[in-house]
Amino acid sequence: MSEARLPVASAVICSVALVAALAGQAALLGMLAAALTATLGALGLRSPGRTSRLTYAVVGIWAATFCGLLGLAYATHDPAGELFLVGGFPAGTAMLVYGTTPLGAVLGVLYGLSFDREVLPRDRQDAFLGRFGGE
Amino acid sequence: MPAADSQIILACVAVYLAACAAVGTWAMRRTSSAADFFLAGKSLGPLVVVMATISSVMSGFGFVGGPGLVYESGSSSLWMVLVATFSLPAMIMLTGKRLRLLVDVRPILTLPEAVSARYGGRWPALSLSIAIVLGVLGYLGTQVLAIGTVLQAVLGIEILPALGLGLGVLAFYSIAGGIVAGVYTDLFQGLIMLGAAIAVLLQCLEAGGGMQAMSETLWAMDPDYIGPWGTRGDMAAMSWMLLFGIGAAGQPHAITKLMMLKDIRQLKWSALATGASYIVLAMLWMGIGLAMRTLVERGEYPALDNPDLAAPAFLLHYTPELLAGIVFAGLLAAIMSTADSFLNLGAAAIVRDVPIALRGRPVRNELFWSRLATGVLLLVSALFALYMQNLIALLGTFGWGTFAAAIVPSVCIGMNWKRATAQACVASIATSVALNFALEVSARHGYPLLPPGLAVGAVALLASTAVFVWVSLLTPRRELAPDIDALLEV
């Protein structure tokens, strides 16, 4: 993936999110916040020439699932309707507590799983420290 | 705050203060240079780093202000705290690898020095140092005030002697032991609070009759309160998710801890461990707020005059004394650990970052001046807390948003993108400081410029990130030093 693609995508998302925020579009702002998190997460995971398509795909699916859960929170919260509990919480709040919260951990798991192969392969670390006098 | 009329609670707080003094004495012997004072000699294991990170992020606000926000507005503030499962991992993903490698190849002790190495020139480091000092003053003032308030309640004494005692202990261990003392008291505190948070959550569920019964009571009171956005509405919830979910990656007191790791490969599972540990602490935030509001709504406890009393009131009336004592000590510890982190950051900015940016070299006898600067910062923030509380409140609100908007672009993106330029770094930091200050001041003076609920810091974060990328693309690319060029390829 080209080096500039992710930062430029971040800037585009931020610019649109700024407009959405100032226009009072909270749902759109929430979804763009998830997209921005995923874009920055992909930037953090990126190691030139090593990051696999699977890693980017997982991050993309993460963002889409997060947006889906946000949409479900909006769709299921009806203050005028009957109380429908999921795991002790109203359905909309359950999307936050049991949905987006554990989902967040996927990025940490992905970082751990891809650390040795993609994020920081031992050979790259040794080559860098060997060349520039690491301790 | 309700008075803690219990010998067990007093004993827990006394044991904690004595432990801090003991750690300070031990750490003093391990602190013989500025590298030890600011970076703990890059000697910390992953458990210490994880605990120090979550302890410094979860300040007194997390234990007092957080439950108070839930008590007052229901689910709204959960979007600040439950995002930690991805916000803290994102911080490590964006900054951990390259900052930790950088301190292995350059004599770098602070974040502004890392920025100076990345971009070259004096302005990026100088502008970041100024933003850090402004944020530190606000954060420190609020933490100092909180130390006085908690000790006043626990010991039943006036604010001045309470401040004197709390700041005396804090001054001793932060001046003598620097960041070494800070991180090891964080380890002690973090491990105890992880256990205590689970125990308190169980007490909350028991007092409220289970989560289902609590939800039914709160839904009958106001469906929006226990709905997904709380009573502050979806704009507040979504903008807090943005500000705290992404902004956590820009908190210097947390990022700096990653530079202290002994072995960079220990970053591997630190991202997951940091997010997961923080979520356990967040159970206090959520559980106490919801339980207290349920109890008040059912008439089992009188309405609170101030939402911030939710945590102390619950602990004193619904938990066993020993557990309450541990959490009160943990509360004090959380405040002191955040204060210690900020004292260290502020001292580094004054003694090291600004002189290097202006004169190209640090002061002589750096360890002595760092200790002196720590003491002076503590004294100044105590005076601010006692006599300029309006300014403290403003700067306290200003802190998180300014750090987020200044550091996410310049450090988190800049450390992962070769095309980023020094002009863009300075422009984004200036945007962060100017927007946070202007929007906060106008809102406080009755001229809100933003839609209701929209967090000032979220707007500043979006604007500064966009400014950073667009200015980078519009300004000429500068040739990077060979080690920085190679670093960005790793």
Short description:
The complex is a heterodimer of chains A (135) and B (490). Chain A is mainly α. Chain A is built from five helices and two strands, in the order H-H-H-E-E-H-H.
Keywords:
heterodimer, A: 135 residues, mainly alpha, two-stranded antiparallel ribbon, elongated, B: mainly alpha, 21 helices, 77% helix
Describe the structure.
The complex is a heterodimer of chains A (135) and B (490). Chain A is mostly helical and 135 residues long. Chain A is 76% helix and 3% strand. Chain A has helices spanning 5-22, 26-45, 53-76, 91-119, 122-132; strands at 85-86, 89-90. In chain A, strands 1-2 form a two-stranded antiparallel ribbon. The longest helix of chain A is centred in the C-terminal third of the chain and has 29 residues, at 91-119. The two termini of chain A are 32 Å apart. The model of chain A has no long low-confidence stretch (mean pLDDT 94). Chain B is mainly alpha-helical and 490 residues long. Chain B has 21 helices and no strands. Chain B has helices at residues 7-29, 34-39, 46-57, 60-73, 78-81, 84-105, 111-119, 123-155, 159-208, 211-221, 223-226, 233-245, 252-258, 270-297, 310-318, 321-359, 366-387, 389-413, 422-444, 456-474, 482-487. In chain B, α8 packs across α17 and α8 (123-155) packs across α18 (389-413). Chains A and B meet through α1, α2, β2, α4 and α5 of A and α6, α10, α11, α12 and α14 of B.
